[in-house]
Amino acid sequence: MDLQKYLGYVLEDVIPFFEEQNIQYEIYELLTPKGEKIGEEKRIVKIEEGQTVKIFISYF
Questions:
Q1: Which residues have C-beta within 8 Å of that of residue 46, sequence separation ≥ 6?
Q2: How many CA atoms lie within 13 A of 1 on its CB side?
Q3: Model pLDDT for residues 19-51, shown as the tens digit of each residue
Q4: Is the model's pLDDT at 1 over the cut of 90?
Q5: Which of its termini does the chain have fewer beta carbons within 10 Å around, N or C?
């Protein structure tokens, strides 16, 4: 399944689809180099597909 099309999407919009499709996933938060969150909105910036999908998010 090509999940790369979800790059840039808001995390909360994509999670229901993953759960509906029974896709196992892990979420990793990426912060600024100073360890800060830039904003409150969580967007997908990277997806690694494997047995468990790794979703990397950043705050905007």
A1: 7, 30, 54, 55, 56
A2: 15
A3: 999 999 999 999 877 877 788 899 999 999 999
A4: no
A5: N
Interatomic CA distance for residues 35 and 53, integer angstroms: 24
Q: In the chain, how many domains are there?
A: 1
Tokens of 44: 């997908």
Q: Residues in the chain, how many?
A: 60
Predicted model pTM: 0.86
Of the candidates 33, 26, 22, the residue with the CA atom closest to the CA atom of residue 11:
26
Q: CB–CB of 49/24 below 8 Å?
A: no
Which residues constitute the domain of residue 12? 4-59
Q: Which of 28, 60, 57 lies closest to 44, judged by CA?
A: 57
pLDDT at position 39 is: 86
